[in-house]
Amino acid sequence: MDLNFTADELAFRDEVRAFCRSAIPTDIREKLIAGRHPSKDDKVRWTRILAEKGWAVPHWPIEYGGKGWTPVQQYIFGEEVSQTPAPEPAGSGINLVGPVIYTFGSDAQKKYFLPRIVNVDDWWCEGFSEPGAGSDLASLKTRAERKGDHYIVNGQKIWTSLAQYSNWIFCLVRTDPDAKKQRGISFLLIDLKSPGVTVRPIQLFDGYPEVCEVFFDDVRVPVENLVGEENRGWDYAKFVLGNGRVTIACVGLSKERIRRIKELASRTRVGGERLIDKPDFRKKIAAVEVQLKALEMTQLRVVANQSKLEKGTQDPASSILKIKGSEIQQATAELLMDVIGPYALPYQSEEEFQREEPAIGPDWAGPIAPAYFNGRKVPIYSGSDEIQRNIIAKVVLGL
Amino acid sequence: MAPFQEGFLVDLDLSEEQRLLKDGVERLMREHYSFEDRRKYRTEKLGFSEAMWARYAELGLLGLPFAEVHGGLGAGAVETMIVMEAFGQALILEPYFATVILAGGILRHGANEAQKSKLVPAIAEGRMKLAFAYAEPQSRYDLFDVETKAKRDGDGWVLNGTKGLVLHGDVADKIIVSARTAGSAREKDGIGLFLVDANAPGLMRRAYPTQDGLRAAEITLQNVRIAAADVISDPAGAFPIISRVADEAIAALCAEAIGCFAEMHAITVNYLKTRKQFGTTIGSFQVLQHRAVDMFVELEQSRSMATYATMMAGESDVTERERALSAAKAQIGHSSKALGRQAIQLHGGIGMTMEYSIGHYFKHVTMIDASFGDTDHHLQRLASLGGLFGDQAIQR
Fold first, then answer.
1. Fewer CB near the terminus (10 Å): N or C of chain B?
2. Is-contact A319 A385, C-beta < 8 A?
């Protein structure tokens, strides 16, 4: 098995890298290097830059704007973009609901929604979890009752990332309350501007209002917004959750963090010498780098295996990617805390950063502790590490 | 409390008085410091509750460790541990640690009779808050890294420099500042302690909130004049006092962290017993049970080390004292990650929210780890002092 890139693949990597470095607006790049969250406008700007290049949805079928790249090229592209560093796509349209629509949606849905996703005319959020349905997603209760040519939707979604930036939500709703859990679920596209919809941001404990509650109070949704077949929504949800699995490891992000750790450690003095020159600290970094390299190689093996898998099915080995990926993200956040030391203490809000208030301590100190706190979500979201382990135990190990 | 004897496990039997103190402060927290109360206190002008500060005075907590002749209760390290644990469990916002443990510690170990008679009653009665400015932008965790200068000026001194990360420096009436009267920037000799009025001409404070809901300040001193009467102890030899107070501070922080860990653990176990998924309470899943047990083990190991720290905070052999306190701080730092992260993880999404309490406890224990030396710093200090066991094996 050859996991080395071919000459063509290396040339492709260089092309992507060069484009990203020159095209990323400096202010966005610096914000991400500093560890701050990109704004809504930042994400839209970057996605539109990619769209102009024809690279907003390279993994989609060519007929909808895809590039027809191989899995390896797809992988290289994803890694290079994240390492720039550049923001993730604006909203959940490009990676989550878009593929559902072009795979299972009606012609009218494809014609209307797909171009609007590519150009970020619509910002989509994901309405899956509920207060009573987290890891046990299939127990969701949000009800969609068919009444003539509309569904009437009542219920509540939670942990909906950036719903306050969004104008559309794709929702798992219960259309048959009498059927067994997974069998009564449908996949519905809902305009967040519909009467009866309330979006309430939830502040995470680091201060960032990253997720929302979304309330549905007798919301009328046209039947045309049902994706695929009624009561087949769970299949489409599995498809959504299986997509983009490879990038969940965030290898590119972690590589950039390691670079940043070394850079900041060389600017930090401890007891008369640079922190980067202390053998203990370098050993700590090396240990994380070993884990990261192993993860990168595992990711390459998963990519190599992708072409052999049935389209849309998820390689259970990709659960390894989430587990180790979240461990490594945690480790890099911790190393950054080691670097900042006591100056992790002062809190400066995002508004203060935007007003360019003078920093307290080193000018890079501000985002470090909030990023460490925010990072506690990684082993929880997108399928908790516990669920990932259950998947491997059951599907891979047959336990 | 029975003295520690090699080979025998100390049973921390509280005296009747200590038991009363514990019951009293725990009741105070139960009745007046729910998480909802705390949210309200944070919105007050100073960022904490002045009413609670008055209650602490009433209960004798503000005068707790000071000598009775100066208006205190003459209590010791165990009493401090009892109070700090209860305060950690409630996650108080008031400047107790800064005023009573830090600045109060400097006064207890370094101030002269005149200074004590003047200041201690004011502190004990809740009329005066203090801060201790020991860190500087470049100093990291080295308390001897002092570049702020104190120059002789007639009878008194003139101070110039910058102090950083001064906990509750924004609200302090007086600030104790470490400044250098002699020697090079990182020398232990030549450091003095100076009592500075917060309104002193030339003193500027930039106040800010901390990650964990408290307040601190960066302080610049420009030709700040100090009278002779406001010099604490030997202006060229105060480092042993600073070092001793730092170790007492570490013991206090360890105790506070235990309160936080105990609360995080209790909340988490309760959540496991009540949260339902997959048709049952999640506490019935063995994997999560083991995680809760792991948290319990961390809590008890840390409690043991906090006790050890309290026992050793007053140890006269400085090397022994520093080994013990470094070991305790390193243990607490380790647990703040192991127990703290698990507490959030076991809650799932809700553990990530600002509204829920767990995240706030996690932020506070993380900030405790970043105070007076993180885990790495203390493992390094312990290692350089020869470790804890079998030190005969290390050839000198």
1. C
2. no
Ranges of beta strands (E only) in chain B are 130-133, 149-153, 156-167, 174-180, 191-197, 203-209, 215-226, 231-232, 276-277, 280-281
Is residue A393 less than 8 Å (CB to CB) from chain B?
Answer: no
Q: What is the pTM of this model?
A: 0.96
Quickly count: other Cβ atoms within 10 Å of residue A2's Cβ: 6
In a domain, A104, yes or no: no
Rounded Cα–Cα distance for residues B284 and B273 (Å): 8
Nearest residue in A to B274, CA atom: A132
Contact map slice: B 167-186 vs A, CB within 8 A? 186
- B32 CB within 8 Å of a chain A CB: no
- The answer to whether A215 and A153 are in contact (CB under 8 A) is no
Q: Identify the bridge partners of residue A274 per DSSP, sorted by sequence position.
A: A269
More confident of the two residues A3 and A376: A376
If you average pLDDT over residues B311-331, what whole number do you get?
96
CB atoms within 10 A of CB A8: 11
Q: Residues B39, B360, A368, B98: is their CA dihedral positive or negative? A: positive
- The string of pLDDT tens digits covering residues B82-91 is 999 999 999 9
SS3 A71: helix
Q: Identify the three-state secondary structure at position B180.
A: strand
pLDDT for B329 equals 98
- Report DSSP letters for A281-327, one per residue: HHHHHHHHHHHHHHHHHHHHHHHHHHTTSPTTPPPTTHHHHHHHHHH
For residue B359, give the chain A residue with the closest CA.
Answer: A205
Select the residue from A136, A345, A353, A376 to test the B interface by mutation, using most B Cβ atoms within 10 A: A345
Domain count, chain A: 3
3-class state of residue A254 by DSSP: helix
Give tens-digit pLDDT for B333-391: 999 999 999 999 999 999 999 999 999 999 999 999 999 999 999 999 999 999 999 86
pLDDT in tens, A280-323: 999 999 999 999 999 999 988 888 887 777 765 667 777 889 99
A381 touches chain B (CB under 8 A): yes
Query: Which domains are present in chain B?
Result: 16-128 (1.10.540.10), 132-236 (2.40.110.10), 240-393 (1.20.140.10)
Of B145, B208, B355, the CB nearest to A347: B208
A270 to chain B, minimum CA–CA distance in Å?
Answer: 7
A370 shares its domain with A268: yes
A228 with A236: CB under 8 angstroms? Answer: yes
Alpha-carbon span A208 to A212, nearest angstrom: 11
- CA distances A236 to A155, A198, A241, A245, B37, Å, are 20, 25, 9, 15, 46
Q: Report how far apart, in Å, the C-alpha atoms of A76 and of each of A79, A175, B21 are.
A: 5, 40, 64
Q: How confident is the model at residue B393 (pLDDT cuts 50, 70, 90)?
A: low
Is A103 within a domain?
no
- Pick the last residue of a domain from A232, A253, A277: A232
In the chain, the amino acid numbered B90 is A
Q: Residues A249, A392: one domain?
A: yes
pLDDT digits (tens, 9 = 90+) for A361-396: 999 999 999 999 999 999 999 889 999 999 899 988
Verify whether the Cβ–Cβ distance A342 to B362 is below 8 Å.
no
Q: Using a pLDDT cut of 70, give the percent of chain B over it.
A: 95
Angle A283-A284-A286 from CA coordinates, rounded to 5° = 60
pLDDT band at B115 (very low <50, low <70, confident <90, very high): very high
Task: Quote the pLDDT of residue A229.
Answer: 97
Query: Residue B45 burial (CB < 10 Å; 0-12/13-18/19+)?
Result: exposed
Mark yes or no for CB contact A270/B140 under 8 Å: yes
**What CATH number did the domain enclosing A172 receive?**
2.40.110.10
